[in-house]
Write a structure and sequence with these properties.
663 residues; five-stranded antiparallel beta sheet; 34% helix; 33 strands; eight-stranded mixed beta sheet
Length: 663
């Protein structure tokens, strides 16, 4: 039979040839190949091919390859747990970003010492070279195989739950199980779609990381299980690099840096996911707000302000109470009349419907379009307690939200303007080049709103905007929102982590629900296109990313204190105060250290506080009206005229320099 490989490669192979042997015949194996893609679907290497099928390798160091390695390692971990503690029931064990986990129901909760035992048994299983064997079974056979495990029985019998579960069984016919055959003749098995590596020995490098609690299927109504997390990689070198990155990430954790630099806090009295911004953090945030406000004005946006709450009728019209109710705070009942019920008000989870109301407040003509509305709007979302993570995932946060209402002919220009704006914003904060730009297209038609023509026009407009700017991008097929396609912009931080920040979306849902229109030049009524864009995304999350990216050493234009003046002795306090006043008078942020600490202690303190400039002043500096500069980066300088330093500092701030400071 004939099989097809990457590019134009073809090969004649015997009937019954596996994917692995076909790849060898096609000369398509380079490096470590852990699975194959047959006609676009990921399969095991021992999958037997049919005549005319195309096959491509999945390398270990690809995203899909790591996914498969991690999924296989998760199975090995679950086998190790049940080997060490026979009878332990287990739930699901999917691969996740950078790792994997499994949920267990042990008699006694796991400890850190238990993780070492589990990892030791995993090493033995890998050395035993146990094959991963795919078996198709009937529902009755599956129920018999997992009799006594309520979690597996639920997955088998709950077809709807299984359909949404990436670790649930599925096959061309019946349910699939993956079995690990042990050297002693026994086996371990789990429900799984696969694929997996051929044998446990193909798992190159892994480690277990931590144990946590997790409700079964994420519902607080269900039993709390023990979730064991681990990570697996295509080589020991890759694992070592990841663990180093993780250690750096712990040092840079914005919650730790926020405490150390007195930027913000999360008081228990406020509740989870709600921050208060201290003066140092508020200064950085204010600079971010001032920057984006100035930019939106320069680019033709009009500012709006909207309330923090809205009546239930607003959220019913927008559809949020139908499809987003779980993410909203409970309503507040207001204005009851006699024995009758009052009106329900909800804290807003999004700003979009409010901006729609601004558009709808008057009759619109094609001459009014495009209409660009912008707001730094604070929203409130009831994230589950287990998902809240500092500023990165909060329950109250501010978005740099803008909504653009335009004609079909204007969509390309508006999308391009949003994309160029996004690139400018990211550059201003030190992210010169996006690491990934993705165009997400329409999901299954049954799950979306809008017409075929509208979707095609919107997708083409976003694609054209990207191509006009000359940007490389990938297409994430079917990953758009139900209400329209989108562009997501990702950056990489100083330690190599990817962050998705800016988003540009087209919305067919709200214009339809709110019956928006405008009068064309021929007097007819047309539905406007609505473009969402958030370039910070969440201002709070963007602040958290910046904090970790710079490890708190913000560029001078953002730094809470840009220069601290350190007098050599109390006799020089008067000149130090003069320097402080002069710099503050030029619009800079300077302060004097009047503490009675030693000079060395003061320098160490301000180094730890990551102040861009320390200015040492003594008798000579006071006499000559100069400063001795000790910069955060670069060489020290003495005898610099105060006027010259002030001019240098102002220029650095005006240019928003983000790298090491110049000499």
């Amino acid at each position: 039979m004939k099989v097809y490989g990457p590019g134009d490669a073809t090969a004649e192979v015997p009937t019954g040839t596996t994917a692995q042997d076909a790849l060898k015949a096609l000369g398509a194996i380079r490096g470590m190949v852990v699975a194959a893609r047959v006609d676009g679907a990921m399969v095991d290497l021992d999958r037997v091919l049919e005549d005319g099928e195309s096959v491509e390798p999945i390398n270990a160091d690809s995203d899909d390859g790591r996914f498969i390695i991690r999924h296989s390692t998760a199975h090995v971990m679950a086998q190790a747990v049940t080997d060490l503690w026979p009878g332990t029931n287990f739930g699901i064990g999917p691969p996740v970003e950078n790792g994997f986990y499994y949920d267990f129901d042990p008699e006694v909760p796991f400890t850190e010492d238990d993780l070492k035992k589990i990892e030791g048994r995993m090493v033995q299983i890998v050395r035993e070279d146990q094959p991963f064997v795919r078996v198709e079974v009937s529902t009755d056979e599956a129920l018999a195989a997992f009799e006594g495990n309520p979690y597996k029985v639920e997955i088998i019998t709950d077809g709807e739950a299984a359909a949404d579960d990436p670790t649930a069984p599925a096959g061309d016919s019946g349910i699939t199980i993956y079995r690990n055959d042990k050297p002693d003749g026994g086996h371990w098995q789990d429900l799984c779609r696969g694929p997996h590596v051929p044998t446990t020995k193909w798992i190159p490098a892994f480690t277990l990381q931590r144990v946590a609690g997790a409700y079964w299927r994420g519902s607080e109504k269900n039993k709390m299980l023990q979730r064991v997390y681990g990570t697996a990689w295509e080589s020991k070198k890759a694992l070592k690099a990841f663990l180093h990155q993780q250690e750096e990430a712990r040092k840079r954790d914005h919650r730790k840096v926020g405490r150390d630099l007195d930027l913000f806090s999360f008081p228990e009295e406020l509740g989870q996911g709600l921050a208060v911004w201290h003066p140092n953090g508020a200064i950085v945030r204010q600079e971010m707000e001032d920057y984006i406000r100035a930019e939106v004005r320069r680019r033709g946006y009009q500012p709006v302000y909207t309330p923090h709450i809205g009546k239930s009728t607003l959220w019913e019209t927008s559809g949020h109470l139908d499809f987003y109710a779980d993410g909203m705070y409970p309503p507040m009942e207001m204005d009851p009349s006699g024995d009758g019920a009052g009106t329900n008000y909800y804290p807003k989870p999004m700003n979009c419907p409010f901006h729609v109301l601004v558009y709808r407040s008057q009759q619109r003509s094609y001459r009014d379009l495009p209409l660009r509305l912008a707001e730094l709007g604070t929203v409130y979302r009831y994230e589950k307690s287990g998902t809240v993570h500092g500023l990165m995932r909060a329950r109250g946060f501010t978005q740099d939200d803008s909504h653009i209402f335009c004609t079909a002919e204007q969509v390309v220009a508006e999308a391009r303007g949003c994309m160029e704006f996004a690139l400018d914003v990211l550059r201003a904060f030190g992210f010169d080049t996006p690491s990934r730009i993705a165009l997400s297209t329409r999901p299954a038609k049954a799950e979306t709103v809008g017409t075929d023509e509208g979707w095609a026009h919107a997708e083409k407009a976003l694609e054209q905007a990207l191509e006009e700017i000359g940007l490389d991008y990938v297409v994430d097929e079917g990953e758009g929102a139900f209400y329209g396609p989108k562009i997501d912009v990702q950056v990489t931080d100083a330690i190599g982590r990817a962050w998705q920040l800016s988003t540009i979306q087209i919305d067919f849902n709200l214009p339809e629900r709110f019956d928006l229109g405008y009068t064309t030049d021929t007097g007819e009524s047309e539905r406007p296109f609505m473009v969402h864009r958030a370039l910070y995304g969440s201002l709070d999350r963007f602040f958290g990313v910046l904090t970790e990216h710079y490890n708190g050493a913000f560029p001078t234009w953002l730094a809470p204190t840009q220069a601290v003046v350190i007098p050599i002795s109390d006799a020089h306090l008067h000149y130090a105060a003069e320097v402080e006043a002069y710099l503050n008078g030029t619009g800079r942020r300077a302060t004097v250290d009047t503490s009675d600490e030693t000079m060395g202690a003061k320098i160490r303190k301000h180094q730890a506080n990551k102040v861009p400039y320390m200015l040492i002043v003594g008798e000579q500096e006071a006499a000559d009206r100069t400063v001795a500069i000790r910069p955060r980066y670069g060489d020290q300088r003495k005898g610099v005229p105060l006027d010259d330093f002030a001019e240098e500092l102002s220029l650095e701030v005006a240019e928003k320099r983000v790298g090491p400071q110049p000499e």
